[in-house]
Amino acid sequence: MHTGPVQKFALESLSEGIPAIPDEAVGFYKQNCMVCFHKNGHKSGVNLTVSYNELSPAFEISWKGDVSEQLLHAYNDTRRATDFAACAIALILVRELTDFTAIEPSCIGTTIDYYLIPQHQAGDLIFNHAARLEVSGILTENEDNTVDNRIKQKTRRLKPEGDLPDLITVVEFSRPWSKMVNA
Amino acid sequence: MTTVRELHDKAMTLAHLAMVARHNQEWDRAETLARQAYEHEVQAAELIPESQMSEPTRSILYRSAASLAYQCKEFAIAQRLIAKGLSGYPPSQVEQELKDLYEQINFERHLQVRGVTLENEDFQLCMEGAGVGYGIILYNEFVKRIQTTRTLIDRTIQRMMQAPYKRSGRVAKTYRPFVPALSAARPSSFAITIKLGVAKNEQIPMFITAAQIIDEIITGIELINNADQKGLRERIQPDSYYRNFVALTRDMAPDGERISLVGFTSLRKAVGLTKQRGQIEISSDAEEADAKRTPIQVEGILDYASGRKQQGAIGLTTEAGREYTILVQEGLDDLVVKYWKQYVTVTGLYDQTHIYLTDIQPSDE
């Protein structure tokens, strides 16, 4: 159960402190989130609860604008929309709950979705103290597709290597809630 | 002087813009942006000296640059960048990422045409997988796909010439303006060229070109591979032709073992069909019509229905001698013709009287 104050977050400020989301791409990520929340009947101001390291903070996610038919049509590939929306929410959680922030999305053919760096890192060797983040999204949880099962699958797949710490985040859009674990 | 961080951030901004452009189906813009992104990322990577102290930053930047080069189809450059990344001291997980990306690029290169020049009226059909060796392929895997390709060409011509869908019988000559011809096979992945020529002494058709037919087929297969049912629906509106296109594409699709990729390349575009047949669904009217019908899968010989009274009904006799009557929706007829009198596995919905067909495949698969 959530305890403590609810942190407020506007999707329009997604890029603040998250180099992996440039200003130009904020609209894209925001609209993916809007569509996923809308498909579950949620409106701007929806509360998202989080489970991370025995903490259960809550975030109020808000946005400007309505979900139109045109927007739903533009993001009609639900699987992709859920993936991108989950990435946006996960990157906010990483920024707010850890000392890291995402710097770069991963390439094709790897299991890592983002590299994370310390929030105030300077210098040219930008990945030398990096962590890795794997993100997954579920539009609507059901018996066969739960957040906990998804975390288990990813933990099995993401074998820790070297000194790089790994984080796994799964975001669910119907309750909505998210679970973040250290792999 | 521009720093690594500035160059990398700029590259990531451009890469994101490319991603948004792809979402908006602005393909040329996406490629231009990805190209600019990879150029910035290469500059960032080249600023990092090749030493153990530089890792994993150096190898991650080369991996990222290679990934961006791959996105704008600069396969040779992408592979060189991967080699540079591997030439340093990459940690094991980045090394694996670089190798995975190399494999991915190799896969795409199978779709490229080598050793021949395609003309407007040509397309390359290539196959890759455990059933394919250097210039050799399992007989059944090849024959099955080349036959289905021929049917797909015929049906696409008929649709584009607005002929009504014909379940059986001879198709009028007007709707057979092209004569497909095959080239000799090429090694590496097994590849042949199919030419849609016009027979000697025959008139060149006025309202349709071979290039249009080829583009239509490749675009349709690409939509199926991307699971874009809506896009395919918009393109192929008559139900029978839609169902037929999906059924034939599924019949050609990889099994994931003997064949892992079926590639189609024309002068203008290329698609690698990697979706396996089990992942390609044909929407069934029967399913929508009656929820009481239950899924069924039976094996047997495809033959005549003993009490056949309606068009589109065929029979299946199991090894134990049990007979089923199978109702075939318009569009699935070509599968029936192809597997007629063969031992097959039929999948469908069963109402205790009829099986409403959704798929047929040879039982040895």
Q: Report the structural category of chain B.
A: alpha+beta
Assembly state here? heterodimer
Residue stretches of chain B low in confidence (pLDDT < 50, at least 5 long) are none
Query: What is the terminal separation of chain A in angstroms?
Result: 23 Å
Strand fraction of chain A equals 25-35%
Distance between the termini of chain B: 62 Å
Query: Main beta sheet of chain B, described?
Result: 5 strands, antiparallel
**Secondary-structure content class of chain A:** alpha/beta
Percent of residues in helices of chain B = 40-55%
- Biggest sheet: strand arrangement of chain A: 1-3-2-8-7-6-5-4
Mean pLDDT of chain A: 85
The chain-level mean pLDDT of chain B equals 85
Low-confidence stretches of chain A: 107-111
Short description:
The complex is a heterodimer of chains A (183) and B (365). Helices cover 28% and strands 27% of the residues of chain A.
Sequence-ordered SSE layout with sheet pairings:
The complex is a heterodimer of chains A (183) and B (365).
Chain A: E1 6-10, H1 26-39, E2 46-52, E3 58-62, H2 69-74, H3 78-97, E4 100-105, E5 114-118, E6 131-138, H4 147-157, E7 166-172, E8 177-182
Parallel strand pairs in A: 1-3, 2-8, 6-7
Antiparallel strand pairs in A: 2-3, 4-5, 5-6, 7-8
Chain B: H1 4-23, H2 27-46, H3 57-71, H4 75-87, H5 92-109, E1 122-128, E2 132-133, E3 136-137, H6 139-160, E4 179-182, E5 190-197, H7 210-225, H8 229-235, H9 239-252, E6 261-265, E7 270-273, H10 285-289, E8 294-303, E9 313-317, E10 323-327, H11 333-339, E11 343-350, E12 354-362
Parallel strand pairs in B: 10-12
Antiparallel strand pairs in B: 1-5, 1-6, 2-3, 4-5, 6-7, 8-9, 8-11, 9-10, 11-12
Helix pairs in contact in B: 1-2, 2-3, 3-4, 3-5, 4-5, 6-7, 6-9
Structure description:
- The complex is a heterodimer of chains A (183) and B (365).
- Chain A is α/β, with parallel strands linked by helices and 183 residues long.
- Chain A is 28% helix and 27% strand.
- Chain A has four helices and eight strands, in the order E-H-E-E-H-H-E-E-E-H-E-E.
- An eight-stranded mixed β-sheet of chain A has the order 1-3-2-8-7-6-5-4, sandwiched between helices.
- In chain A, strand 6, helix 4 and strand 7 form a beta-alpha-beta unit.
- The radius of gyration of chain A is 16 Å and the shape is globular.
- Chain A starts with 5 loop residues before the first strand and ends with a strand.
- Chain B has 365 residues and is of the alpha+beta class.
- Chain B is built from eleven helices and twelve strands.
- In chain B, strands 4-5-1-6-7 form a five-stranded antiparallel β-sheet, covered by helices on one side. In chain B, strands 8-9-10-12-11 form a five-stranded mixed barrel. Chain B has a two-stranded antiparallel ribbon with strand order 2-3.
- In chain B, strand 2 and strand 3 form a beta hairpin.
- Classes of the chains: A alpha/beta (183), B alpha+beta (365).
- Chains A and B meet through strand 4 of A and helix 1, helix 3 and helix 5 of B.
